[in-house]
Amino acid sequence: MATPLIVEDRLQFDGIATKGGVVLNGGRLLLRGEVIGDLTIKSGGQAVIHGTVNGIVINDGGLVDIFGTIDGLISPPGAMTFVDAGATVGT
Fold first, then answer.
1. Which of 17, 51, 67, 70 is packed most tightly, with the most Cβ within 10 A?
2. 1 contacts: CB under 8 Å, gap ≥ 6
């Protein structure tokens, strides 16, 4: 049975996570693979996305850099999100 990708410390992920994921406070995700489902970055978490998120990236107070492809983005005021000019957001 698949479970969500939970990131509590440093992780370079090159595989496929089929149940979404969460980057917790103190976690740092370097995504070169694929997340199927939403990816949430909590306050104090960091994500650098070079791969694909087939879902919504939800920046819940973390630090997010997007260079790859994502379906959508929720980044409220105060959340730090960088979207590279070469990134793809949406279909």
1. 70
2. none
Cα–Cα–Cα angle for 16, 71, 21, nearest 5°? Answer: 40
Predicted confidence (pLDDT) per residue in 28-64, tens digit: 999 999 999 999 999 999 999 999 999 999 999 999 9
pTM: 0.96
Tokens 């979404």 — which residue?
Answer: 20
Q: Which pair of tokens denotes residue 53?
A: 């998120």
Sketch the domain layout of the chain as residue ranges: 5-83
Q: How far apart are CA 61 and CA 27, in angstroms?
A: 13
What's the helix, strand, coil split of the chain in %, to 5?
Answer: 0, 60, 40
